[in-house]
Amino acid sequence: MDARFPGIVEPTFHAADDSASCRAAERCGFGLEAVLPTRPPLFPVEGRPHVRGGSVRP
What we know:
By secondary structure, this protein is α+β, with helices and mostly antiparallel strands. Helix content is 16%, strand content 22%.
C-alpha cells in the first residue's frame, strides 16, 4: 500500500509460464489473487495478478 494513497493496493502481474516472477512476488508479500484467461493475440498465456497481502488461490 502506498502511503500517499491509503487503502489502494497496486497489483503486480506476470505470465503464468514465468514461475520465477511468481516466486519473487510471493517472497515480497504479494499473494496470488487469481488466474486470468488468455486473451490472444496480446496475451497468449494465462496471467497471474498478485496483490500485497492477498490470498494464494491456485
